[in-house]
Design goal:
Two copies of one chain form a homodimer.
Chain A (H helix, E strand, L loop, with lengths): L3 H27 L4 H4 L1 H5 L22 H5 L3 H8 L2 H8 L1 H33 L3 H4 L8 H4 L12 H36 L4 H4 E5 L9 H12 L4 E8 L2 H26 L6 E3 L9 E3 H25 L4 E9 L2 H9 L10 E4 L15 H21 L1 H10 L2 H7 L4 H5 L1 H21 L1 H12 L4 H25 L4 H9 L6 H8 L4 H21 L1 H13 L4 H7 L7 H21 L4 H21 L12 H25 L6 H4 L1 H17 L1 H4 L3 H14 L5 H5 L6 H10 L31 E2 L11 E2 L5 E2 L2
Antiparallel strand pairs in A: 1-5, 1-6, 2-5, 2-7, 3-4, 8-9
Helix pairs in contact in A: 1-20, 1-25, 5-29, 6-7, 7-10, 7-28, 7-29, 10-30, 10-32, 13-14, 15-34, 16-21, 16-22, 17-20, 17-22, 20-25, 21-22, 22-28, 24-30, 25-29, 28-30, 30-32
């Protein structure tokens, strides 16, 4: 077990690293040449304009020579806090603003608890002497002396801990309630003040049954014309353009190579660049690169055109899925919330996601497959969670240096050197874990995609759930219950239900110091590493050097990224779990967590303001998930405390703990009924109010025109741009994460004609492709 | 443990009792004087007309003298089976028809399984000799020799049982699927062909927020006029008439006494009947009964009128609940399925129950109370389930005669007499249990009422759930795991999860014979007792003797009752559980269960056709519950078999069992998605189709007139009848079970004026009571 000194060393290392990162960040972001890496948000908003490459001549455009600015290298923190929340919502969206509130919520919950803990619990713990009297049994550190471990068995002092647990639960629930209420209110205000958006009028319809007599498009129109006669406006069918998207993506890659070759040639016109024809240009016949790539692009463009023609002309390429739009929000709200068909597995309606939030690839999945996919992925995630543990546990065992020394005696002189020992014990386990976790989100996101969700926001949320479970099992439990961790699963099944709290109560208090180092490595240095943006910095400069030709290219090279809710939520929720579980047992952990929340709040506020460009806006739809996980942490804490109390043989006070989970669950049910529908449904009252306002302010609005191409597959839009001759680096189809394809950033040229509801005469045939590049109904 | 001989004695007793009951039934129902007890349904339908009291002179109106009819005393069975299902639905409603299908389903599932079991499993079991070889360890009976207990540990024969388990599960799931599909189809056809009913156009709105500026009625109208402008028609507010209902109920009781006294006087005009004034007429001043009761009734009528005026005039007597009607079914379907208000706990909408299905008393409960009530009742039911067990277990222990003999040696000579021993062991435990269970449904129904459900169908369904859990714990588990049963709950918590199947697998096979006797007592004799209708027979004749003055009185005295889903569902589901659990382990139990299902089907079909008069029609809304419980039984069986197999040390085959629960759960999820919405939601397609049909066939229908008084509290209707001078025995407010108050059976005199949607000018004040007996808005 790590001593206080180990902890000190670890803290020193981590604080140094953090400061190093911060200084690096401050230095790098002041250089004008990096401006697009550290302030991309402002470029996207069009509030900053950078110099083009031609301006490279003057040095001060590259390097900041104003030494004064370097003195205030932490000034960005003050800057980040300056923007008021309402402005932040307008600047970065509600998702980002509410995301930041999670860190604030951490501060609001744990700061008062820390003060209470140090004022009440620490004195109570430190004045007892259980650890001194039983020193032979338990190896203890100074930290344990101020923790609950130092209280004697059966001591009356445990009543203090009991009442503090109630205070803690009450305070946490109170803060959660306030926050849920605030966020729900913010969401309503946001949705109410929002501009007219296509998704407010549109419903995604899945499982359109095949009809032998008419095409899918016609079938949809007839169905909704009959069942929503007063509100149906138009619909857009969905084409299976996955192959086209693949071709377009490939062409983009070749385009990059072409750009690279052209740039190379421009810089050194004496030598025409060459490349080999084979795999990755590594072998095969040597050819002129520019000619080769140009030919390739021509070929792919032709392929794309042919494929496009095939998709648009082929009845079979139309998926049994459609975006159905209504005249008024009220009609869409009704359709999204009701069952349409007698067969409840047909004509399934749900709110359409924002156009930029749609994950087009998965719309082509047949609905029946979804259940099977869900089942398989659930199994796969379970396996991943419980067997990924093997390597993690191996690395964890490194922390147990005494064991290694015994087995490998020759290592003893090295390990026994004080500093190295502290370093190994304090730093390595956390770092190893962090590295392990680095590649996981990608795998989990792929799994979520296979599961078949149709919007990015949902994908991020379900990935976050998977990742959270992973973290809880593999970071929390694997660390708490040392030993091969899938054996723990086995042990769990072979253990009586009444035994589980005791096991937890025995194991969890022992691991406080480990989690403190974990917080410093994962939390503190991690955040500093995040704002340093080393990876985007390097990529940006590489792209700038080899690929950027036009201003638009440079804009695309910025890759501001987004907050990445799929990874940040599990992380922050893990800190909530740690804080909740240890708040009573080892209050000493709270300052570390509070520093994490505070630092994270400031840093990510800076990022949200200056860097991130969210791909979608879900209106804080993730909040119920955050809330529910914190409640689950609370209940877990209460079960753990049951175990701790019964280990302490506090027979008097233990029964009083049993009421807590019941109360917490009641609170949870109340909150769910009160607030959760606000995040799932769209009340008719609201829809009607917005409709009425719309009617009053824009009486002659042509809503059909507004919705016309809103739900067109982005790949058709790219093709359109291409045909207009301005083809460039643009959004690859299944990685919209990098460059969001917002509808407003593209022209409104009609590619797929909307099947209009007003003129039934116009919709009686399969769509055919006309040479003008648009679809016309005959 | 009971031997085969004990079982034979028990069977003989039960079969004798059953036949005795049947002969009694055949005899009684042939007497014309009992005609209204055994064929009330036909009287209610108006297809039979009985003689009045005056006709008593001729003997053959009282007693059936046609001896030939007595010869075919089982003829009613053939009669019962004759009516085709479509006619049955029309005759008794879909609920009853589908209820009978549950017994058929039992036959469909278990009959093939029994044949397979006796053809495959019994030969496999009986040719092994585990019990003979290990006779010293296990006390075995002949039944055990043909059960799985006779297979040697680790025998390869267990592969037969394993594959049979798969066959069994597959067959059960297949039948469940077919049945779910059929019932869902029946429900749709039923709803589609149904006549126009008020509940198709009406939505129950709860949690209407108070408004300082306007009355509830006005607030409702404004809200729906704004948010459903095209569909809102009218609404009816709900008055808190619980006190009025109490007064009316009391008056009915006094009316009965008055009728009794008047009849007594009529028969013996020389003596005026007297009674004492005090409690129950047992003490106090002696007064003339007729005068006394007449005065009482006058007093109560005045009280009722005053109370009625108070309720209708007092703004505070209007509950924040309303029945809102729409112009078209489509509008109601939309309103019932969508969220209305921004605050998801306000303006809650759900489909209105049928008028006769409304449980008015609970509409007055504030919505916030409901969560608390639910929590408290859940706790109370839990306590009831786990502590009611104490007396049951005590009686159960009687079956263990060997133990009693040891403790009370003097009883030995009596007990040891062969016949008495068999009787005690075979008959008593089942009977004792049955008696215990007799009074339970009433308690559970009261609990459900306290929970606050607002319709009778829902009340019966939630009571059925409570009762089922009770039966499973207190009949099934308490019998299987002998010993104090709440200790079992304790043991369960102190047992590893992996240990549970083993405990079950060890205990369950031992109890097959007990459940066979249980089936005979509870099932066979129980059904025969049910159709004998001894209790209604006695009550009818008592009423006829003392209270009946008019033909209408006699009609009210019939009390046909209903099937009582709250008690029959748990019973039949318990038989499904027994059949499922023992089908593989002890196939010998199946014939007994099949006889139960067959006999029950015929008997209850007779009852449904001739006796029961359902209080409501829910369109088989209970089916998902039946389906899900059978699925749960299947999973329970699979877990038990896991235990049995591992007890048998069948290490090869046990792992293959683990797939079964997974497959069953997948099947369950599939069925839930596919069929359950059909029982909960009302598809817009369907609503639109019926609306269109209505429009075509009745273009000039005045729907507002049709809905006018549909949702009036029945107590106002009684009062109305009373004022019209034809007051008599009528439906007491909170016992609509006895006499359903169908809207069509009462006049359409307007008592509560409908707040009409068309003329907003008419709805701007609180309702006042006018002398004409109707409410007028000023």
């Amino acid at each position: 077990m790590a001593t206080l000194q180990d902890l000190g060393v670890s803290a020193a290392i981590n604080i140094s690293i953090t400061f190093l990162f911060l200084i690096g960040f401050a230095f790098l972001k002041l250089q004008p040449v990096n401006d697009r890496v550290y302030y991309p948000k402002w470029y996207i908003k069009g509030l900053r304009k950078g110099g083009t490459k031609g301006d490279r001549r003057s040095l001060d455009k590259l390097v900041n020579l104003d030494y004064k600015q370097y003195l205030y290298f932490l000034d960005w923190m003050r800057e980040a806090l300056r923007m008021p929340e309402s402005e932040l919502i307008e600047h970065a969206g509600l998702d980002s603003a509410v995301y930041l509130r999670i860190y604030l919520l951490g501060l609001k919950i744990f700061l008062p608890l820390m003060i209470l803990g140090f004022a009440v619990l620490v004195p109570v713990n430190v004045t007892d002497n259980y650890l001194v009297s039983s020193a032979s049994q338990v190896i203890s550190t100074n930290i344990d002396k101020i923790s609950m471990a130092n209280v004697k068995n059966g001591s009356q002092r445990l009543w203090v801990h009991l009442s503090m647990t109630y205070v803690f639960t009450a305070w946490t629930c109170f803060m959660l309630y306030i926050e849920y209420k605030t966020v729900a209110g913010m969401r309503f205000r946001f949705l109410a003040t929002e501009h007219r958006r296509p998704d407010q009028f549109t419903v995604l319809v899945r499982q359109i049954p095949p009809d032998p007599d008419e095409s899918i498009s016609l079938h949809v129109e007839h169905f909704f014309r009959v069942n929503h006669p007063d509100y149906y406006l138009s619909h857009q069918v969905v084409y299976n353009a996955n192959k086209l998207a693949k071709i377009v993506k490939k062409r983009e890659a070749v385009q990059n190579w072409l750009d690279y070759s052209q740039l190379k040639y421009a810089r050194n016109p004496s030598v025409r660049p060459t490349r080999r024809k084979g795999f990755c240009g590594l072998w095969g016949e040597t050819v002129d690169a520019i000619d080769y790539h140009t030919a390739q692009i021509d070929q792919l463009t032709k392929e794309a055109a042919a494929e496009r023609e095939r998709v648009l002309g082929d009845e079979k390429a139309i998926m049994p899925v459609a975006f159905v739009s209504f005249r008024r929000r009220w009609g869409a709200a009704v359709c999204a919330q009701t069952q349409q068909s007698k067969n409840p597995t047909l004509w399934l309606t749900e709110w359409a996601p924002e156009p930029r939030d749609v994950y087009w690839y998965n719309l082509a999945i047949p609905y029946v497959e979804l259940t099977i996919r869900k089942l398989l992925i659930t199994g796969a995630v379970f396996a991943l969670i419980f067997f990924f543990i093997i390597p993690v546990t191996f690395v964890q065992s490194l922390a147990n240096l005494d064991g290694i020394e015994k087995k490998a005696k020759f290592l003893k002189p090295i390990i026994e050197r004080h500093f190295i020992k502290s370093f190994l014990q304090g730093f390595l386990p956390g770092l190893a874990l962090k590295l392990f976790l680095h590649f996981l989100p990608v795998i989990l996101m792929i799994m979520s995609k296979i599961e078949g969700h149709v919007c990015l926001s949902m994908l991020e949320r379900v990935t976050a759930v998977k990742y959270y479970y992973f973290m809880v099992v593999n970071v929390f439990f694997a660390s708490v219950l040392t030993g091969a961790a899938f054996e723990q699963l086995n042990a769990f099944f072979h253990q009586a239900a009444s035994q589980i709290p005791k096991t937890l109560g025995d194991a969890i208090p022992m691991k406080a110091t480990f989690f403190i180092t974990f917080i410093m490595v994962d939390g503190w240095s991690g955040i500093a590493g995040d704002i340093l943006r080393l990876k985007p910095l390097i990529i940006y400069h590489l792209k700038n050097m080899f690929l950027v030709k036009t201003e638009k290219d440079r804009e695309n090279a910025m890759s501001p990224g987004s907050a990445g809710f799929d990874t940040v939520f599990p992380q922050v929720l893990l800190y909530f779990l740690l804080g909740t579980v240890y708040a009573i047992i080892t209050p000493f952990i709270l300052p570390f967590i509070i520093i994490y929340f505070g630092f994270a709040y400031v840093s990510y506020r800076h990022q949200v303001i200056n860097v991130y460009d969210p791909e979608y806006e879900s209106g804080a739809a993730f909040w119920p998930q955050i809330h529910n996980r914190i409640i689950a942490s609370l209940i877990f804490e209460q079960i753990t405390l049951l175990g701790v109390f019964s280990s302490k043989k506090a027979a008097d006070s233990t029964p009083f703990l049993i009421g807590l989970p019941v109360l917490t669950i009641a609170f949870h049910i109340y909150c769910r009924n009160r607030f959760e529908p606000a995040f799932v449904k769209y009340p008719l009252e609201e829809a009607m109010a917005k409709d009425t306002l719309d009617k009053a302010t824009h009486p002659d609005l042509n809503i059909k025109r507004f919705l016309q191409n809103a739900y067109m597959h982005p790949v058709f839009k790219i093709e359109e741009d291409d045909e207009e001759g301005n083809y460039a680096l643009d959004a690859p189809e299944d990685e919209p994460a990098l460059v969001p394809t917002k509808p407003h950033s593209h022209g409104n040229t009609p590619v797929v004609s909307v099947h209009e509801g007003d003129s039934p005469a116009s919709a009686h045939g399969s769509p055919t492709y006309a040479s003008s590049g648009s679809l016309i109904h005959h």
